[in-house]
Amino acid sequence: MNRRDFLKAVGVVSGGAVVAGCEPKKGTYKAIAPLFPLPEGRAPGEPYYIRTTCTECPAGCGVTVRVIDGVPIKLEGTPGHPVNDGSLCVRGQAGITRLYNPRRIQKPMRRKGADGWEEIEWEQAYGDIIAAVKRSRQEGKKNLYLSGRTSGMLGRLIDEFCQKTGFERLPEYEVFDYATLRRANELVFSIREVPSYNIAASDFLLTIGADVLQTFGSPVSQQKQIARAKRENGLKWVHAEPHVSLEGLQAHRRVALKPGSEPHLLSYLLAAYGKSVPGAPAADAPSVSRATGVSEDVLRDLAQQLRAAARPLVIAGGVSLAGENGLATAVLCAQLQSAGGMLTRLDFSRSLEMGRVGTLKDLQALSERLEKGQGGVLFIARTDPAGTAPEAMRFAEKMEKASYRVAFADAISATTEKCDLVLPLSHALESAGDEVPRKGLRGLVQPVIEKQLHDTKTEGDILLDLLDEMTAEREFRSFAAFLKQQWREAYGPGYEPQFSETGYREASAKPALPAARPVPPEVLKTAALPEGPTLVLTPSVRYFDGRSRNLKLLNEIPDPLTTITYGEWVSVSEEDARDLKLRDGDELEIAADSWTRVLPAKIQKHLPSGVMMVDRGVAGACPTKVDPATGGEIVWLTGVRVRRTGGAVKLPVMSGSPSQHGRGIIPDPVHLKKKGDGHDGDHEKGHGEGHHNLTLYPEQEYKDYRWAMAIDLDACNACGACVAACYVENNIGMTGRDQHLRGREMSWIRIEPFYDREDGADFLPMLCQQCDAAPCEAVCPVFATYHNPEGLNAQIYNRCVGTRYCANNCPYKVRRFNWFDYRPRRDPQLRQPHGDFTDSIEMPMDWVSNPLVSLRKRGVMEKCTFCVQRIREARDHAKDKGRKIEEGEVIPACAQTCPSEAIIFGNSLDPDSRVAKIIHQGTHRVFEELGTRPAVHYVNGPIPDAHFKDSERGEA
Amino acid sequence: MQEYRFEDEHSYLHKLQELVDSGVPTRKIHAFSPIPVPAAEQILREKPTFVRVFAIAGALMGMLAGFALCIYTVLRYPMIVSGKPVVAVLPFVVIAFELTILLGSLATFAGFLLNARLPYIPRIFNPDEYGTHFTILVEEDR
Amino acid sequence: MTEQAIEQHHRLERDILAAMSRPTGWYWVALGVSIAAFLMGMGLWLYMILTGMGVAGINNPVGWGVFIVDFVFWVGIAHSGTLISAVLFLFRARFRSRFNRAAEAMTIFAVMTAGLFPLIHLGRVWFAYWLFPYPNNHLIWPNFKSPLVWDVFAVSTYLTVSAVFWYVGLIPDLAIARRHAKNKIQMWAYRVFSLGWVGSVQQWKHYNKLYGLLACFATPLVVSVHSVVSWDFAMSVIPGWHTTIFAPYFVAGAILSGCAMVITLMVPMRKIFRLEEIITVKHFEGIAQMLLLTSLIVTYSYIVEYAIAFYSGNTYEISHFVYRLLGAEEPGHYRYAYWVMVACNSVIPLLLFFRKVRTSIPALFVMSLFVNVGMWLERFIIIVTSLARDFDPYAWGLYKPSFVEVGITIGSFGLFFTLFLLFCKTLPVLAITEIKEEYT
């Protein structure tokens, strides 16, 4: 399918869908004026790139959008961006599917009857709001403006709006509000902020509960720093945690703590530095060991390592700060940071921009006011308190006491369900704005798509419209104009080129060393966690705080620990499973006081007995408590009642077995040969034991290129970003829950967890190994797959007749068959905001299709080919220049996005290429003994003389 | 035309022998039997059949055709699979073998039809039926 | 040659051709049921073509399921026919003549049925013709290195040669049927297809040579076809498939299942068409002995399979074969399939060592049914369990046949029996001429 057909198809399909969608007005999408002039003289169908900023989470990674004919195709990290330097996480990669998400609200909706909605025009919506405002003025009620974390210039506009219209702007509500951490830093350093942690500069990292790879702080940046520190400073990473998390399994060493015992560990470590904090728990090894459940040797060893390290760093966060002893933990951690001379690596001059994010106390206060019926018109923007706030707060009910409720949202949520009016927000790729992830850094958000998908507006434009209507004064034509004026004020004239070129603006800030001061001992008093089963809500790499739950792509990608894709589950320790006689999928009823929930169980190795985990993203409103000391959320539900319902459901677990059954899939050190043991650059010779390469036939000769890949398993964090990138880049079908239960996922690259080690687990990204002697090729009766002259195991989709012999014969099982037509399909009822996931890619998801990759029909086999379309692009480009493709010119989507740069791709025939060097130094290849001679090489880091791009930039 | 009918094979053979001995030229003797009677062939000094020649020719042709087909086609559009050489004889043996059998047996059948002059259209329209009898027809020389 | 021999010749013709007389009600019932089953199968296939392979139970990693099992099963059934007629002809086995006609018919119908399944299991059956070598504008020919292409050649060759062999055997009998034709249509059909055969000395001369040569061609063919089918698996790298004994193992299995199917068909046929005194217990005993022999060979193969797996010391092989024996602790892991198979194919046939069992028609009939089931299971175990657990534990999976697969399987039996029933009423079910020869 060539570009033109594709565009035609898109035109027809989406156009048709639109017409069928609802009322005709849908068809007339407004064109969006670009914020800055677009690249000049671009030919139709030729991709161009626009810088913007990811708004999936507060980390604010720089994003470069690949656009073709005004349609965004793929998001990629902006190279050299101070936060993410070219990488994106799994959520960032999936961000583009939020733009095309069929569950987006497409028009202002007014409540009609009990639980009905009617779509209305913006004018009517404004009319309603103004009427409601008048009414509440007469009733003498207060109009309130509650929003999620707001950064950048939008905040100013909201202020202006509020003071001009007499709204009260409330503290913002975020689920991850870092209340405890900020409070602790306030107590110790008198700075109520979350610093940027300079991990890149440290050589020993101790993280306590902080999910630095998933949601804590700036995950992509932290992943990158960890990977680089591993390579450059030989960073050793220890993760202490009261449950089990990706971090624990990825760190070099995992220390399992008893829940709530973090302060004991910290005061022990403080003692190691000869510092005793008044009020802190006893620091003698035996009692600490008793409290934490960590053996004394391990404690001693840990302290010793910490002391020995030249530039150690300790970070406490995540669930460890979300318990009864959260504040004590955070404070002691701060003390340790100062005692251990780590303050130089705590950069408060670049601390996270929390805007006006308050704590649950503020939300509490709000709900009390609402309770008293003081609430007039209530605006709730970009946040879902009804769905996420502690269930005891009953926020949903309190909300309804406000006289009129308006939600600014992009999709239906528990909050919008309680509103009288829902105003649909434009997606970041449709809107102008800016995002300030951390102090001194402003990321540009600019419209990328040429036409609006739906009848939506940006919050800024809505506010300007309302100002216009209510105060009859209109200063700015649009929010974009407002922004430009603000930026000009901030940066002076002539800021545009640099801003639009790089997509960000960073003010040079000189870090000020914070000074620690003693804290009142009472904040340090700790309480032991009551016995009995405990339920903990864990942050989620896929769903963040739940905001990404409605993105099908993120549901399609397995959870890294359990490999569950769709649906909800509760992770149960092996011991508890044994006691309760549980199998995967058996339903558990979990009850805490009034709240009960029935969830299927999934047995999770390494989980301490008595602790159960539920993914934050799937939990919804839970009976969490508010930490009186900090206003933070306490996500440890102690003393929950658990019983088997007797029912069972099938869980879409993608992994066929948690163990590799001693098959040497994960390389042991012995697999990795030392450099130069009798083989000479040629990566075929001297690999595995010699006899593996015995063959009747002469080896295939390659002329210019032999594409190969090396994957550093030490760097790989199993975050799944590569998987998401692959889905988006290659138009991979999203098959849905039902198909997953039948074992019909379509992922070309997957991450396989193997829980064989007693102290952790191993993860291995598995993709087509592009074998030299590929078992799949010879068995195809029609030459639909063959070995191309550059070593790729090519798959010719339109030649395939679908015998599936190739997939059967693939030892790596990386070939995917189109059991049904998984191509984007128009299906009007899928376009309802309430629609559930279905087995087809839904409208208008087909917009995301990459025109350079053909869509596979039903009945054909498909697979990874190292993003051959990118290789082709690079070759054309090189051909124009009259030279060969150079190192780094071709980067597959997976390698491009990997936050820890674990995937290295290149031409193994070029002795100077990084991949060739790595191969030369000796690598591990999966199932090499079968004589398949794969082109994907696994190394267990560190990679020799691998010069990493811009390692001096970024946080380092 | 003189006709002898027998109920049993023995007297049939006896009569044949008798006719041949009495100097009737074998080309004038037409013998029919419901079941094969090899002895009759000796008596009538039948020449050995040519069918086997067809068999051998067909088989050889088949084998050659098999190899030729495989080798020609892979050379026509050479593609490397599983690191095997383009012209890999081993796998082609199977094809060659199957074609040997196929053409071999078809040729044999064809050979039989030719030699036995079948199908014989006139007899299809009005078949001479000898039932379960052993029959001998002798042309009288006029 | 005695009087009573001549009498016998007449009775033979009468009795055997009597089978072709006007069918009874039960015949119509049987035919109706078979045709209905066949049509249902076709309907399900159409449904699958229109919606996608997904309606079958196959998935990753089990890309081949019941369809391929059925294919191998039917090809196996197809083996006894040509074997009985060709190999036993060369060995001059006496009991051959009572079975060869029906067995050959069975062969042809079984191959036709089997031939459907490679088509059914194709993801894009509308491009099936790409598997055949023909000059085309893609300039691409089939990949002759692929076992699947070998299959295409082997099976189509087998079908053609078996058909020719069968027809050649029919010619003299058609000439007999010509005389007994009851109506014009029959008469003309037999006249045309008997090619004007008169049984002259010359015709017999060429005929015998032809029959002998065809037997010589067919014998290696029989061996080759199922060897090629077995190479569909043996050529792969999958533990449980990738083993050198597959060819003989499959051939033996094929003959075992073939003989079983012959018994399954001949016992009722003998009863219904009252051919008791033509097909005697002695003849069945002959088949029973072959059944026993092949069953022993198959049992031996089972043992060797395991011996090799464990002797190899290969992790994948060993763990796979352990899995075959014991399944996994979770349910739905084909736990008992293997033991049922062993019981059907290896244990129960041992009873044939007893003359009493060998010579009891009902016992043989029941046993043949067991063996049929067992052989189907054997293919299921080989194909499905091997795929369910191969190299990468992450990719392990389970397979459950869907109603489509079950329905199409039933449909295939429908097709087979339809064809066989039609055969019974249109052609001499026994080789009259050859039996006559024996009576002289």
Explain what you see.
- The complex is a heterotrimer of chains A (956), B (142) and C (440).
- Chain A has 956 residues and is α/β, with parallel strands linked by helices.
- Helix content of chain A is 27%, strand content 18%.
- In chain A, the strands form 11 sheets. A 7-stranded mixed sheet of chain A has the order 5-4-16-15-14-6-7, sandwiched between helices. Chain A has a 7-stranded mixed sheet with strand order 27-20-24-21-23-22-28. Chain A has a 4-stranded parallel sheet with strand order 11-10-9-12.
- In chain A, β17 and β18 form a beta hairpin.
- The longest helix of chain A is centred in the N-terminal third of the chain and has 19 residues.
- Chain B has 5 helices and 3 strands; from the N terminus they run βαβααααβ.
- A 3-stranded antiparallel sheet of chain B has the order 1-3-2, with helices on one face.
- The longest helix of chain B has 27 residues.
- Chain B is elongated.
- The model of chain B has no long low-confidence stretch (mean pLDDT 89).
- Chain C is mostly helical and 440 residues long.
- Chain C is 72% helix and 0% strand.
- Chain C contains 15 helices and no strands.
- The N and C termini of chain C lie close together (6 Å).
- In chain C, 55% of the residues are buried.
- Chains in contact: A-B, A-C, B-C.
- The interface between B and C is large, with 66 and 62 residues.
What are the defining features of this structure?
heterotrimer, A: 956 residues, alpha/beta, seven-stranded mixed β-sheet, 37 strands, disordered C terminus, B: 142 residues, mainly alpha, three-stranded antiparallel β-sheet, 3 strands
Summarize the helices and strands and which ones pair or pack.
The complex is a heterotrimer of chains A (956), B (142) and C (440).
Chain A: H1 3-21, E1 48-53, E2 62-68, E3 71-77, H2 90-99, E4 109-112, E5 116-119, H3 122-138, E6 142-147, H4 153-165, E7 167-169, H5 179-189, E8 196-197, E9 204-208, H6 219-233, E10 236-241, H7 246-250, E11 253-256, H8 262-272, H9 285-292, H10 296-308, E12 312-316, H11 326-339, E13 346-347, H12 360-371, E14 375-381, H13 385-388, H14 395-399, E15 404-409, H15 414-417, E16 421-424, E17 433-438, E18 441-445, H16 459-471, H17 479-491, H18 496-502, E19 504-506, E20 534-538, H19 552-556, E21 570-573, H20 574-580, E22 586-592, E23 595-604, E24 611-615, H21 616-619, E25 625-626, E26 633-634, E27 636-638, E28 641-648, E29 707-712, H22 721-729, H23 736-741, E30 750-754, E31 762-766, H24 775-778, E32 785-787, E33 793-795, H25 805-808, E34 816-817, E35 861-862, H26 868-881, H27 893-897, E36 903-907, H28 914-921, E37 936-939
Parallel strand pairs in A: 6-7, 6-14, 9-10, 9-12, 10-11, 14-15, 15-16, 20-24, 21-23, 29-37
Antiparallel strand pairs in A: 1-2, 2-3, 4-5, 4-16, 8-13, 17-18, 18-19, 20-27, 21-24, 22-23, 22-28, 25-26, 29-36, 30-31, 32-33, 34-35
Helix pairs in contact in A: 2-22, 4-16, 5-11, 8-9, 8-10, 8-11
Chain B: E1 2-6, H1 9-21, E2 29-32, H2 38-43, H3 51-76, H4 89-115, H5 121-125, E3 134-138
Antiparallel strand pairs in B: 1-3, 2-3
Helix pairs in contact in B: 3-4
Chain C: H1 3-18, H2 25-51, H3 66-91, H4 96-120, H5 147-180, H6 184-193, H7 201-234, H8 246-272, H9 281-312, H10 315-326, H11 337-347, H12 355-358, H13 361-388, H14 403-426, H15 432-439
